Amino acid sequence: MDIITRLEEVILIAIWKLQENAYGVTINKEVSRSFQKKYTMGALYFSLDQLHKKGFVSKATGNPTPERGGRSKTFYFLTVEGKKALQRAKDHQEALWKEIPDAAFKKGEMK
Amino acid sequence: MKKGSPSPGKWAERFLSFLTQSGERTSITGDFAEIFKEKVANHGVSKARIWYWYQAFRSLPMFLRNRTVWILVMVKTFFTFSLRNLKKNKILSLINLTGLSVSIGLLLLVLLFVRSEWRVDRFQEHYDRICRLEYNDSCVMPSGILPLLEGKIPEIQNTVRLDWPNKTVAKYKEEVYSLNRTIFADPSLFQVFTLPLIQGDAASALSAPFNVILTESTACRIFGTENPVGCRLRIDERYDFTVTGVLRDIKDFHFPFDAAASFPSIGKMFGQKALTLLYDGFQHPTYILLQNKESLPAAAAKINTTLKKELKLNFTGEFKLRPLKDIYFYSKTLLGDQYHLHGSLQAIRIFLAAAVLIILMAAVNFINLTTSKAIRRAKEVGLKKVVGSSRAMLASQFLLEAVLLSVFALVTGFLTAQILLPLFSHILDKPLDLSAFLRGAYPFLLIGGSLLLGLAAGIYPAFVMSSFRPADVLRGHINKTGSGIGFRKALIIFQFSMATLLILASLVVFKQLRFMKNANLGFDKENILFLDLNRSLRSRKTAFKNELLRHPRIKDVTFSCRIPGEIMWNWGVEYGGEKKSVFVNAVDPDFIQTYGLRIVEGRNFRWEQNPDKSNRLILNQAAVRYLGMDSPLGQRLSSLPNGNGEGTVIGVLEDYHFNSLHTAIKPEIYYWLDWPHGRISLRLGAVEGGLPRAGLADTISHIKKTWTDFCPNYPFVFSFLDESFDRQYKNEEKLRGLFTLFTVFAVLISCLGLMGLTGHMVENRTKEIGIRKVLGSSSAGIVVLLSREYIRLMFISFLVAFPLGGWFMHRWLQDFAFRTEADSGLFLLAGMISLFVSFLTVVFQSGKAAAASPVRSLRYE
Prior knowledge:
The complex is a heterodimer.
Chain A: H1 6-18, H2 24-35, H3 41-54, E1 57-61, E2 74-78, H4 80-98, H5 102-110
Antiparallel strand pairs in A: 1-2
Helix pairs in contact in A: 1-2
Chain B: H1 10-19, H2 25-43, H3 45-58, H4 60-88, H5 90-118, E1 130-135, E2 140-141, H6 145-149, E3 156-161, E4 166-172, E5 175-185, H7 189-192, E6 197-200, E7 211-215, H8 216-223, E8 232-235, E9 239-247, E10 259-262, H9 264-270, E11 284-290, H10 296-311, E12 319-323, H11 324-330, H12 345-372, H13 378-387, H14 391-428, H15 442-465, H16 470-475, H17 485-518, E13 528-532, H18 541-549, E14 554-560, E15 569-575, E16 578-587, H19 591-594, E17 599-602, H20 612-615, E18 616-620, H21 621-627, E19 636-638, E20 646-653, E21 668-672, E22 679-684, H22 696-710, E23 718-720, H23 721-726, H24 730-764, H25 766-774, H26 779-813, H27 824-851, H28 854-858
Parallel strand pairs in B: 5-10, 7-9, 16-21, 18-20
Antiparallel strand pairs in B: 1-11, 1-12, 2-11, 3-11, 4-5, 4-8, 6-9, 7-10, 8-9, 13-22, 13-23, 14-22, 15-16, 17-20, 18-21, 19-20
């Protein structure tokens, strides 16, 4: 199976971290904080849509709140598939780094 | 949202909800609203609003990507439906497609023609800043005018004088080549005009006397593969010119030439005086390059003041500067088309209008046929609506069908254009190439245009068809003939009035052309044949003439400077202390006899009277009137182009049409010149009882033999006067050709539409026809019954077409000094033609139904 992208990874982790409170605004804040740059809402929705299609997240409509002008939120939750995908990404990352000896990395850094 | 709390703005919110899909709209706009509120608290309302818009725009690609997927899914279904429908109604689709593709094809051809007309001169680098110096109607100036302006008008950056194109012969290595358009040009030619030299130096090519530059094809003709630069050419057996440059062949330039000799050569050839003429020798097109295009009015005003001061003349007219962009389309010069290209904006307008009319007619067919068959699709519409389709969605499906058809018609239209192209180029006498439309922005424009056409034709049917109410349709309660009958009738009337209008227009053009070609010109153009004179004949012209006359069929031979159909020299003569512009022609005493002209007063020149040779004049009646002579005989005129510039009137010629019937007869003055360099005209006797041109071969071989005996170095070229004279009607011939083409297709398209409509009507009334026949109606009676309605519409369409056509044709005819009338017979004929053709169509369709056995038609359900 494909490895998820870095953006998808960050979004999935954000959703995981936010638990019951993962919806557009909060996810955007988490992702922006993680990348240390402002993220466009549209880009986020698109990625969320993709993740939803792949079955990594599930959606649920919440209750309307007054600060949103009476409009409801769409909450996102991590599915089992999503968690597996995150795990795969992590394993892949570690496996990738293991192939490079520490010494070589430090040398490169000093240069 | 609570009142008073800040909002991102109505339009911003609408924009965002427009972008989002219905399923996720609330949550996304909610998210936006939440952040917006936070931004308002932190940064203020305006910044928050900017953020809102910015975010919405930044997200545009993402949203669109989402939306497009759904649109594509929908379009795919629509496509399937549309194709299915087009296939189902094969005849209907075929009629629509034929009409649309023929009309698109014609429009493409017309656009191609317009494009090629529009390109003339536009390649000039200084296109905006070049203008031509003109005086009243004259586009040519004497040679000395321009030097008067030198250094006096700061607006002028540069100038160039050219010359009236002459026919010359060039001799190179004992071979003689004719150069049909030889001009003189100032050295500044290349600074004013963008004419790329392939060989030679633009700065010096035309500076010294007896330098000449040739166009590439001329150089190839003479020198072949040899390098022409530096070679010597003997021009007219008299002057040696050195080739100093080769010009790339001139295309799309209003003043084409084959060879350009340096202007200083004029001084060496005809004396320095010829370079400083002020009042005579109007033969130099004079171009001015301005510093900038805005300075044209200022420059023109200064030119007028300067010249009026310098010329010390009582001017009635005015010097004008005609910008280059107007020269091709607007200048009415007296030069022939071969020398000065002319475009006709009128022709462009007429052709465009006709092409658009035909497109409209094809669109009308589409609208009529589609709406009349709408009933067939009522069930489809009803069912779709029940299932939940919105009206907008249905309408867009019908629109898509129309657009699909018109885009398809673009492809077939292109093919139609390709098929008609040879014919079209032939009619217009202009090589055209359709591949121009495959380059640059054209494909997009064309596709865009056909999309628009589809939308325009499809919008009304889409509106009608999507309006059916499902309950009515499914219960079968619907008007069988479909709705909007009145509108459809109006469209038929429109269509037929346009077809009749085109028929009428073609008839008028035909009639005017026939009138002009058969008009009594005041001289006999049928039996005249002419040759070009050349210098080698000068000393032996009498011997040559006598040798020609030895053939029994050659009755008269005359030498003249110009022959009918050509443009006479424009000259300023002085009479009664006034300078007046007239037209002069140098002839010999046999001219009047050869052309069968009539002297109404006085006498002809006499061979035996020597003084007749230099200072005796014959005027035409127009000249007598123009100069205001009461008793013309014996009147004296001065500053003439002959011997000593003086002349006495000895005869008055009855007015005849030296030029085409476009123009009124001009004031003409004839004088006898011993050697009028120009043409030899021969009058041939008619063979009794035979065709006018019968047995000519023998005569021509005699002429040819005489020619090769006298001047073996010159190519033998002869022409018939009637042909060359009628070439003046080339524009009308083009118009006639195109009108015929347009009319045929217009009638075809409207008949196709009519055929579809009657076919549909007959189908709807099959049962009625059957019952009528059973009850004893005759076939003819049924045909009358079915066609009556259409015939009525035809007559109404005449009420539109005739006044409109009459008015248009009256306006068109105004351009001719001598014209025929668009009389009632013509209207009658036009009406008869369109009535007959459409009656035939209707009878063909209804006849089938009327002839069918009633048993069959009653059993069809």
